[in-house]
Amino acid sequence: MLLEIHTSALAAMGTKPLSFIKVATVLADDELPGADLSEEAFYLRLADDEANGGDLAAAWAKALTAWDFAEDPSWAAGTAARTDKRRAAVYDRLQFGDAVRKALDSAVPVAKMPGATVIAREHTPWYTPERAAARVFYWQAYEGKLRSKGWSEAAIASLHEASRAVVERLTDPEQEARRQAKGLVVGYVQSGKTANFTGVTAKALDAGYRLVIVLGGTLNLLRAQTQRRLDMELIGQENILRGADPADVDTLVGIDYVGDDEDWDEFVRHGGRPSTLQAFDIERLTTRDKDYMSLAQGIKALEFEKHSSTLPLYDPANLHRAAARVMVVKKNKFVLETLVNDLKQIHGILGELPALIIDDESDQASVNTSDPKKWEKDSTDRTAINGLISQLLKLLPRAQYVGYTATPFANVFVDPGDAEDIFPSDFLISLPRPEGYMGVQDFHDLDSPPEPEQRTVANSQEEAHVRGIYDKDGDRLQEAMDAFILSGALKLYRADRGVPDKPFRHHTMLVHESVKTDDHAALALRINTMWHQAGYTSTDGHDRLAALWTVDFAQVSQARAADLPNPASYDELRPYVSRARQLIAKGGNPVIVVNGNSDKYFQQLDLDFDRTPNIWKILVGGTKLSRGFTVEGLTTTYYRRTARQADTLMQMGRWFGFRPGYRDLVRLYIGREEPLTKTATADLYEAFEAVCRDEELFRQQLAQYAELVDGKPQLTPAQVPPLVAQHLSWVKPSARNKMFNAELVEVRSPGKPIEPAAYPTDASTLCRNTKRWGPLLGDLSPEPVTFTSPPKADGTPGGATFSALTTRVSHPELIAVLSQLEWEREGIFQPHLRYLAQLDGTLAKVDDWLVIAPQLAKANRVEAVVLDSVPLSLVRRQRQAGKPSFGRIAGLEHRAAAQWLIDAAADPASAPVSGICVGPETGVALLYPVVEATRGADLSAVAGVSRGKADPAKLVMAFTLIPPKSATDSSRRLVRFQAKDSTHTDAAIVAAPAQ
C-alpha cells in the first residue's frame, strides 16, 4: 500500500518536487483511504528497503537522482546540480522533516560527480523539461534497458543530462525555418560514447527527428556492432520483427537476430508495435549484416505518410504520427556515395524532413601523431569522407550534425581544410568521466602521489597496476603471460562464487612490441612456443604461478577488492588455473595476430566479440587495429616498441575501459627504457602520462571557460582552435587558403597555476633566457625554508615536507623578466603575459611574488651554482615525444604547497598552522633549473657543471606561477579572443591572406 502511494505521488510530481504529504493525501483519499502517510512509517520502511534493496528505495532513488541532476531548474534557482544545497532544496519543496531527510540521504547519497562541459553559442531554448517529458517513448525504453543492465540511477541521470545537453542545442524539429546545427561530443577512449549517442538518438526521435543516419566505423564488423547495439537497446524486437511471428519460421525471412543471436531475449521489448501504443514505429534501412547498399524499397523507403497532406511533414500534426527511419552506415567512400546518389533522386520531402547525422569516431585520422607528413598524407581520405558528409547536409537542409571523438584535440579544431562544412560551430560538449571507468587516473598517480618510499599497492595506482620493463629485469613477457592466466583463473573463481560472470565472457591480453607487421608473425610464434614450454600443468609451472600470485595478485586484491571473493591460497585457485589454460588454448593456439584493417581480414579472425560466446586469447598487434575496435575483456597489456613512433602513444589507451569485477586484476607491462637512438632511451609510461596530462589540462580549461559571464558564453566553439594550438604546436593546416578566425588574446588565471611547457631547444636561446633570470637568482636566500603539503581531503595532515630557497620580488621585477623570455614558438606565452602585465593595478593589483626554488631530497640532490646564485637543486625533466613541450614542470608536492599558500591567503581559516604565509595580493612562483636528461643520466655532466657552476646554455629555467585569487576584475571573465577577420566576427573559418 505504501509503495503504491509513493510511486503514484512521484509520478504525479513529474519533473519537479512538490509537497509530498499534499500530493499523497489527495491520491490516498481517492484510492487508499486510511493509509498511513506519516513520516515515521516512511523512514522505517525506507530503512528496511535500503538494507534489502526494496522497491520503495528504488523509486525514491530514481526521483531524487533526477532532481539532483536537473540543470538550472526554476524550482531550485541558485543551486548547483549534484550538491548538498540542491538536495536540501528538494527536501524543502517536499516538506520533509529531519528524520526522513536523514533516511533518504543514507539510502540515496548525493552523487557528487562532474557534469558535462558545454561550450556553445547562444541558442533559442525549445527542448524544455515539459516538452521533453511529454514524449519519452524511446528514451524510457532505453532507460529501462540500462537499468536492467545494472546501471546505477546516478549513471542513468548523468547520461540523461549529457544527452539532453546535445538535443537541446539541435534545431527544433517542428520549426518552420530551416537551420542546421553542428556540434561535437568529446568522450574518453573506450568510455562508452555509444551510450551517449544512443541516448541522443532516443531523445531526438521522441522530439520529432524522423531520419537518423549513424556513420559507424570503417569496417563491417564495427558497423554491425553499432547496428546491433541500437537494435538491442533502443529499436527493439517489435520494430525488428515488423509484425512477423518469431515462432513461425516462414515469416522470418530477411529478419536478423531471431534464432542466431543468443542475446535475442535481451533485446528491448516495447509491449507491442509502438504505433499501436500512441507512439511511432522505427523502420531500419540497414540491418546487422547488410550495410546501406541502396534504399531497400527504392525511393518509397523515404516516403512519409502525412496525416494532413496540406501541411508539411515537420508540422506537429504530421510529424509525431510518422514512422522514423534509422540507418547505420559504414564510413566508406563507396557506401556514402551510394547514399548521396539515392537521396538525389528524392524530391520535395527532404526539405521537410528533420534529420540527424551522428558521426561516430568523427576524428577518424587521429591528430595524436607527431608526424606532420603523415597528417597531410591522411588528409586526402579525411577530405573525401568529409566532402560526402557535406553533400548529405546539402541534400538534407533540416539535418543536424553531431560528431563523436575520444580526444579533445579533434581534427576539426586543428585543420580548417578538414573542417569547413562540419565544424562544430554550435556546440562542443565534453562528457564527464563515466562511473566505473578505468582511465589515466587509474594507471598514473597524477595528482596525489605518495613519496616513492611510501608507495604501496593500496595508495598508488602505479604500484597496483603497472609493471615496468627495465633492461636489468629482462623482458618480463613470461611473467605477463603468467599474469594473464592467473587473472583468468581468478575471474573463474569469482564467477563460481556469485560474481556476475557476463564481464568475464571474454578474457584477452594485448601484446604490442613493434609497429612492423612483419614482426608480428615472429612474435606470435615466439609467444606460442613460450606458452607450450611454460609448464602450466607441471609442478614448476604451478610454483611459478603461486609465487606471482603471492607477491602480486593476492596483495593487490586484498587492498583493492576485499569485497570480492579472493582465494586464501594458491591451492584454492589451482583448479581454476587448469580451466583458464584450457579456454586460452582452445583450438590449439592461444595467439591471434591482429594487424589487418580490411573486412575480409577480420572475418577470417572470427573476432566478433558480440557473436562469439567466449574469446580467451592473446592478441598480437596494436597500431593496425582499426579505430573503434574494442578489445573486450582486456586484462593484461604488454606494451613495448622498438621504433620512434610517437603516434603509437594513443594506441595505449586501449587498456582504458570498464572492468567490472576485475579492476584489481588489470596489469600493464610497459617499457621504461625503450631504445630511441644509439644512446637515448624512452620511458613509454612517462611519455603516455604526458600526453594524457595534456588532454586532461585541456578538458579542465574547457570546464573553466564554460562558465557564463553575464549570461553569455566566455568561449564559443569557433574560439577553441587557438586553445588547441597551444597544445599541438607542430600541426600546420593542410589547406593553405583557409585559416581559423579566432585569435587568443588573453588568458586569466586568478588563483590557478600558469605552467608553460614549450621551452626553446636552441642552446644560445636557453643561455639568454637563463641570464634574464640572473637578478632574481642572485636574490635567493641561502637559508632553506621548510614547506608542508596541505591536509588531505579527510582533514588529516598532508605530512610531506620539502625545503626550498626563497626570495620576494616586486611585481614589476617579475614582469620585466617574463616579458624578455624567448619561447619555442613565438607568441605562445603572450596571452598569459598580457594578463600578468595588467596586474599592476590596471585589471587588479599584485604587490609582489614569493619565488620558491625547491630542493630535492638530499639523497637525490644534485646542486650547482647558476650564474651568481647560491647552489640550486638541478631538476631532471624530459620533453614529450615528438614535441618541444615538457610533460610537467612543477613537482606535485611543490605545486600543492604553493596552491595552499594562495588558497590560505584568500581564506585565512585554512592557513598553515606554522611556517611561511603570503598576503592576499602576493603571488607564488616556483622556479626550477631544469636539465633535459633521461632517467639514469648524470645530471652534472648533462648540465655542463664545472667547478660547481652549471652551463647556462644547458639549463631550461622553467617556472609555474600562481597569481592570487584576487587577481581579476568583477567580470570574472577568464579568456578573451579577437577575430582576425573583423568583417566576419562570427565565422569560424575565413580565407587566409594571399601568400
How would you portray this structure in words?
The structure is a single chain. By secondary structure, the chain is of the alpha/beta class. Helix 4 (55-69) runs parallel beside helix 9. The longest helix has 24 residues, at 372-395. The radius of gyration is 30 Å and the shape is globular. The termini are far apart. Residues 365-370 and 643-648 have low confidence and may be disordered.
What's this, in brief?
The protein has 30 helices and 30 strands. It has 995 residues and is of the alpha/beta class. Strands 1-8-2-7-6-3-5-4 form an 8-stranded mixed beta sheet, sandwiched between helices. The chain has a 6-stranded parallel beta sheet with strand order 10-16-14-11-13-12. Strands 21, 22, 23, 26, 27 and 28 form a 6-stranded mixed beta sheet that branches.
Helix-strand layout with pairing:
Layout: H1 2-13, H2 20-31, H3 39-52, H4 55-69, H5 84-94, H6 98-107, E1 117-120, H7 129-134, H8 137-148, H9 153-167, E2 182-186, H10 193-207, E3 211-215, H11 220-235, H12 237-241, E4 282-284, H13 316-319, E5 324-329, H14 333-344, E6 355-359, H15 372-395, E7 399-405, H16 416-419, E8 427-430, E9 437-438, H17 461-465, E10 466-469, H18 477-495, E11 507-512, H19 517-533, H20 539-560, H21 570-584, E12 591-594, H22 599-605, E13 616-621, E14 634-639, E15 657-658, E16 667-671, E17 674-675, E18 681-682, H23 684-705, H24 720-725, E19 738-740, E20 742-747, H25 763-772, H26 774-778, E21 785-788, E22 801-810, H27 811-818, H28 830-837, E23 848-854, E24 863-864, E25 872-873, E26 875-877, H29 892-906, E27 922-932, H30 939-942, E28 956-962, E29 975-979, E30 989-991
Helix pairs in contact: 1-2, 1-4, 3-6, 4-9, 8-10, 9-10, 14-15, 18-20, 18-21
